[in-house]
Amino acid sequence: MKYKYKLALLGAVFCGLFLWGYLSFQQHTIRKSNRRDYNLILVFSTVDGIFPGSDVMIAGVPVGTVTSTSLDENQAIVNVSISKKYKLPADSSASIYTDGLLGRSYVNINPGSDDEMLQPGDIIEMTQGTLPITDMVGIVLNKFIDQDKAKAAKPNVAE
Hints:
It contains 2 helices and 8 strands. By secondary structure, it is an alpha/beta fold. The longest helix is centred in the first third of the chain and has 33 residues.
């Protein structure tokens, strides 16, 4: 008897997860098809964690998605689709950020101040790629080591 209830519960959970996934996909597809977008090309040295479908944000607000990534002469080329309601100055720059220590990566666009706006197909070359986690840990550790050395070298005034 208990086996049937467990099986029914497992089936309901599975159906619920399937329905949730299906509706999420449909919502994303509908939202994407209703938008009018324009494409930009971003040139990075590295794009670890960025894939088609990754978010493009301005000040933490989603404004588009990554449509493709490719390699050209040892540089990463990222094609993005930006909603037409967001006009970007020609001197805008782009960086790759990570949402938290182990979170997802996304492209962050920093709007410039130029009066001329980017047009569909324009290239943003002022970019900063990802910094590998090992390099970030090394930077933090070196900072703490430097602080300890500075404290050791500082004379004790209280004596």
